[in-house]
């Protein structure tokens, strides 16, 4: 008949000393304060090492049972744990006494306690690997006092427990491929405005209020011309530059907080070091905006025999590329087959520009205003050349356009876009809303197009501007849409 091998360890010399539990690390849910887990001060009554289900004595699967009192206390138990760990008998059941008659037990495994030194071991809970306990010699009266002070120890543990941080791996490549309407490209739109230089050598700049006014004027003019965008946020960005002497309009003494008040509205300030003022900080303004209805991808597929794309592009004074004309009545034109012609008519009826935000997944929006006041944007001639090369190579063209209505989609026959329409960003409270008569819906107020602004319609003559000197000059040649070779060829 299988029997258990019981090895009581007695120590008559230390009858007043008992082996008690020392909580080393709390559980992930602080379950050690419930009656199910062991607690600091619990008196150890029994240890069972080995397979609890096995009753075979004299084999590696036998169960060793040690009961109180334990010979040599903690040091004797550590030797027992060391021998069991060497034999790979790491399963252990600890039974403890709490008070006069309350009992508890913990199913755990024996693991090294590296923080306590060599040949030192502790018990790790099977139910919660975060929870570990060790052993300590205490008098029985001390154990009872600890058990009675449980509430006070919980309050102490609450005040001393600190939240821990960590790192978690994230599948960035997969998320950027699957969760973005344009893979590996954001939908966030912004333009950076550098402060205007007040002299030719760019040693001094206009103040911050001037830069903010330029950003405000750029946004208002864009909306008035029919660009379907809405203001989202604005922020200042600090750009480092090298200055010397009296270049900075304000100099900050790092040891004086009173100097900080001088920086409220300056665009350039410097810091002093041992060699004088030679580190400058330029305060630029970044304007964040968003399309009213999000972006829509349109794929223009080309066929043999296509001699023209059927549309022309232009650029606004603010640097936006837009569809300025579409051939009407040609059902065979790529612009008609893709649905671009129908969408262009919808934009015209809504007094909006059909703005091109991407060509082949590359953003073609203005991105910076230089210190000379010139807008860094894309050249219409280079864009048209690339579109023409698509036609010659018979490679489909992928355009993204900005929508002005969240519910708008390409009309019948034009549902040829590769990516789904990205969700529109929520409108900020600054956007004015108006309700339709006898209707509960609300919609953004359509900005009025001022007299003399360009209208988007078939056959309209739009005067384009072409880059000739980078950001230093914005005086360009004028020509009409009828002469645009990528529309006719």
Structure description:
Residues 434-459 are annotated as: Disordered. Residues 435-444 have a biased composition (Polar residues). The protein has 489 residues and is of the alpha+beta class. Helices cover 18% and strands 28% of the residues. It contains 9 helices and 23 strands. The chain has an 8-stranded mixed beta sheet with strand order 1-4-3-5-6-7-8-2. Strands 9, 10, 11, 12, 13, 19 and 20 form a 7-stranded mixed beta sheet that branches. Strands 14, 15, 16, 17, 18 and 21 form a 6-stranded antiparallel beta sheet that branches. A hairpin with an 8-residue loop joins strand 6 (102-112) and strand 7. The longest helix is centred in the middle third of the chain and has 17 residues, at 208-224. It is elongated, with a radius of gyration of 38 Å. Mean pLDDT is 77; it is low at 1-6, 10-15, 54-60 and 410-486.
Summarize the structure.
With 489 residues, the chain is of the alpha+beta class. The chain has helices at residues 73-86, 140-148, 150-160, 172-178, 208-224, 334-337, 340-349, 380-393, 485-488, and strands spanning 5-6, 17-25, 43-49, 64-67, 91-98, 102-112, 121-125, 132-139, 189-193, 229-242, 250-252, 268-273, 276-291, 295-300, 311-315, 321-326, 354-359, 362-363, 368-369, 375-376, 397-402, 433-435, 442-444. Strand 19 and strand 20 form a beta hairpin.
